[in-house]
Amino acid sequence: MNHQEVESHQVVVTDPKGKPNGLLTDLLHDLINNALLFVSLKEMATAPALIERLRSHTPLPDDVLSEYSKILTEPCYGLNFAPQKAQIELIVRR
C-alpha cells in the first residue's frame, strides 16, 4: 500500500458492482481541484465548512456550490483500493 497523498484523478466513484459513475467522478474531481486552489483541506472539518469557505473565498456560483454540496454529502457505502489501476473507488448506491 502506498501511503502517499492521493491525486484527484486517482479517486473514482462507482456503484456497488464496480461500474464507474462518470458524472459523479467528474464532479468530485472538479470539487477537489477547485477546493485545492482556494483552501487547505486539512483545515476543513465538515462538508458545510468547506462549502462556506468556497462561497466566501471564490467566485463560484451558487449552483456549482450546490452540486459540490451534493457530492460531499453523498453516502459512501465502502472503499475499494485498486492498486493495479492506482485508484481508490468510492462506492455509492446512486
What does this structure look like?
By secondary structure, the chain is an alpha+beta fold. It has one domain. Helices cover 43% and strands 15% of the residues. The protein is globular and about 40 Å long.
Layout of strands and helices, then pairs:
Blueprint: E1 11-14, H1 22-38, H2 47-57, H3 62-73, E2 78-82, E3 87-91
Parallel strand pairs: 1-3
Antiparallel strand pairs: 2-3
Helix pairs in contact: 1-3, 2-3
In short:
With 94 residues, this protein is α+β, with helices and mostly antiparallel strands. It contains 3 helices and 3 strands, in the order βαααββ.
- Secondary structure class reads alpha+beta
Radius of gyration: 14 Å
Helix content: 40-55%
Percent strand equals: 5-15%
pLDDT averaged residue by residue? 89
Molecular shape:
globular
Give the strand order of the largest sheet, numbering strands 1, 2, ... along the chain: 1-3-2
Count the helices. How many? Answer: 3
Q: How many separate domains?
A: 1
Q: State the end-to-end distance.
A: 28 Å
What are the salient characteristics of this protein?
alpha+beta; 15% strand; 3 helices; three-stranded mixed sheet; 94 residues
